[in-house]
TrEMBL record:
The keyword Metal-binding belongs to this UniProt entry's keyword annotation: yes
Keyword Nucleus belongs to the record: no
Organism classification: Eukaryota, Fungi, Dikarya, Ascomycota, Pezizomycotina
Pfam family, one: Cupin_1
Organism of origin: Zasmidium cellare
Residue ranges of every copy of the Cupin type-1 domain listed in the record: 1-101
Protein name: Cupin type-1 domain-containing protein
Signal peptide (from-to): none
Key words, A-Z: Metal-binding
Amino acid sequence: MRELHWHTTSDEWDYILAGQGRLTVYVAPSSSQTFNFQAGDTGYVPVVDAHYLENTGDTDLVYLEVLQAPFYNDISVAQWLGLTPRQVVKDHLGFSDDTLDRLPKIKPYILPGNTNLTTTNFTSETE
């Protein structure tokens, strides 16, 4: 899964080379769209729209991501929250200390997936 993030300098175009997946795009403040795709399909995400990509197949998802910008830039929601003062995140989102401790200061680009597509627990910990 490519975690929830957004780009500050460019729209994003995706071309799916192999596999199948799902792209969800959040348009602030209150709408989202989800698209399922397979090899040969293309996707588009407007600049600053938060989005994430997940593999929904049983083989690798291979895609080409193209941004038209002089340098690559994205902001990860998890890292953004991890670098925000703890008390601000706690006061506004009600996160527990355990959750705050697990927010990354360094952005992970790929998060491990779960083959159970009905789960909402996207941590890398095994329970």
